[in-house]
């Protein structure tokens, strides 16, 4: 299979699973849109995890916002790529007819590969965030900075004192 066909097959498996679950929960409404959205999300997660690994390896804190070109340019490229490869003139329909004719064993084998890749992308993203959180904890930055931790401890102490005061009022121990 060519890379283009593999991409279409990846979309095919996502589309078929969405279509299958939609049958049981209210119809096949917008299945191609949903499958395209899943494809975009998976690609964004893959890029996000690469960015997280970059931040982890270089030991730099990277602050991003949607207005930064490093965010919106890849986003536009991903959405544009998916539009022109999947939605534009419905190229995927021609390939779906071909994939529907695949032998059951081959379809199962390729399906397992597709779902393994999806699980790998999700696991990779979660692991990259885990590494970043471990790094911030170790460096005591972000939510683990000493001043933030001290402030949270102070707020917790105040809340506990207020709770004790309320309980004493409830049980009448404040008048003793």
Report on the architecture of this protein.
This is DUF4234 domain-containing protein. Keywords: Membrane, Transmembrane, Transmembrane helix. The protein is mostly helical. It has 2 domains: 3-139, no CATH class; 145-176. The chain is 80% helix and 0% strand. It is built from 6 helices and no strands. It has helices at 3-24, 31-58, 69-87, 91-100, 104-139, 146-171. It is elongated and about 85 Å long.
In short:
This protein has 176 residues and is mainly alpha-helical.
Backbone CA Rg: 25 Å
Give the tally of β-strands: 0
Round the mean pLDDT to the nearest integer and report it.
83
Name the poorly predicted regions. none
Fold blueprint:
Blueprint: H1 3-24, H2 31-58, H3 69-87, H4 91-100, H5 104-139, H6 146-171
Protein name: DUF4234 domain-containing protein
Transmembrane segments: 35-54, 66-86, 110-133
Keywords: Membrane, Transmembrane, Transmembrane helix
List keywords for this structure.
mainly alpha, 2 domains, 6 helices
């Amino acid at each position: 299979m060519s890379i283009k066909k593999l991409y279409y097959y990846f979309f095919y498996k996502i589309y078929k699973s969405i279509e299958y679950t939609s049958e049981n929960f209210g119809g096949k409404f917008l299945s191609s849109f949903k499958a395209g959205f899943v494809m975009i999300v998976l690609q964004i997660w893959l890029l996000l995890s690469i960015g997280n690994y970059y931040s982890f390896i270089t030991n730099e804190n990277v602050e991003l916002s949607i207005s930064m070109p490093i965010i919106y340019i890849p986003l536009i490229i991903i959405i544009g790529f998916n539009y022109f490869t999947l939605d534009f003139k419905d190229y995927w329909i021609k390939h779906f007819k071909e994939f529907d004719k695949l032998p059951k064993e081959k379809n199962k084998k390729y399906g397992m590969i597709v779902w393994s890749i999806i699980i790998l992308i999700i696991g990779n993203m979660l692991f990259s965030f885990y590494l970043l959180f471990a790094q911030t904890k170790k460096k005591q930055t972000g939510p683990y900075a000493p001043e933030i931790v001290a402030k949270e401890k102070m707020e917790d102490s105040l809340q506990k004192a207020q709770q004790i005061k309320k309980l004493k009022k409830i049980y009448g121990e404040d008048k003793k």
